[in-house]
Amino acid sequence: MATGTSLRTVRTLGLKAGILATAALIASAAVPPAFAQDMPEMSLKFGHPYNENHPLAKGAQRFADIVAEKSDGNIEITVYPNSTIGSSRDLVEAMQIGAVDFALVPTTNVASFYPPLDIFYLPFLFRDKEHAYAVSDGPVGEALYADMLEKIGIRTLAMYESGFRTITTRDKKIETPDDMKGVKFRVVNNPLNVATFKALGANPTPMALSEVFTGLQQGTVDGQDNPVGNVKAFGFDKVQDYITLSNHQWAGIMFLAGEGMWEGLPDNVKELFAETALETQEWERKALNDQEGEFLAEMEADGMTVTRLTPEQSKAFQDAMEPVWTEYREKLGNELIESAVNAQ
Predict the structure, then answer these.
(1) Domain coverage including residue 153
(2) DSSP tag of 66
(3) 150 near 257, Cβ under 8 Å?
(4) Less Cβ around it within 10 Å: N or C end of the chain?
């Protein structure tokens, strides 16, 4: 972004989003509940990059199942996991041309198309999950989603999550920023992610999620960063010996709908999709948080060395991010960053 996103813009868009949401609620209250027989017959595509055992994949399938049940089978949503119909970037592009109807895509990948979403991956921005939810579900998030819809024609229905990111390596325990120097490190293909690990002295290598296991196995890269659930679900723990709970970024996973598809829907179908997306958002977040501890215990029992940073060690990583924050204050705008920092 050349000029950044101002807090005034965030507030204005948030107010507009609130007005629209209120109007929708009033309209829906005035109309009798839709019955299954009123639902049109439809076949839609839902793509994502996650393994079927991951809570994210289960959330997507749950969405499809609930919609099928509530529409009495009239609306069929076929879910394509494991990047079978494209990588995260491919899915965004496919939604823009109407080839895919729904997708789960990390904020950092969507930011390649709508840069203000980099706010979600600013390292060490979020104090905890509750803070992340306050940004993603509150006025800041609502304003960004409304502006994104206008700019790139993709609608945000919900925000799933894969949790806070960790650092894994093959043969090196990571406790300090200095331990990252020279490590060949897979990162998400986004300039912010590259900048984050360059600031630690690593050798960042952008790579699609579907290619990471092979890259680690063959030694193309020595380490990577992903939340605990991804490390377990994709089997990275089988080819990595060390995991550091750095919590350097929170991975929000956007539940997206193509606007071309959305505009052609009857109101009762829009309502069904919107309500079910939020219902499954809550289910997915709980499932992920419930399983994360179990996954970590399993990996530790299988011989993976788990490093839990002390507050002093964590601060050293945060301090190393100062150049990244300086660069992105200019790109994102100080007011947007502060509105996220102060979200309650």
Answers:
(1) 7-341
(2) H
(3) no
(4) C
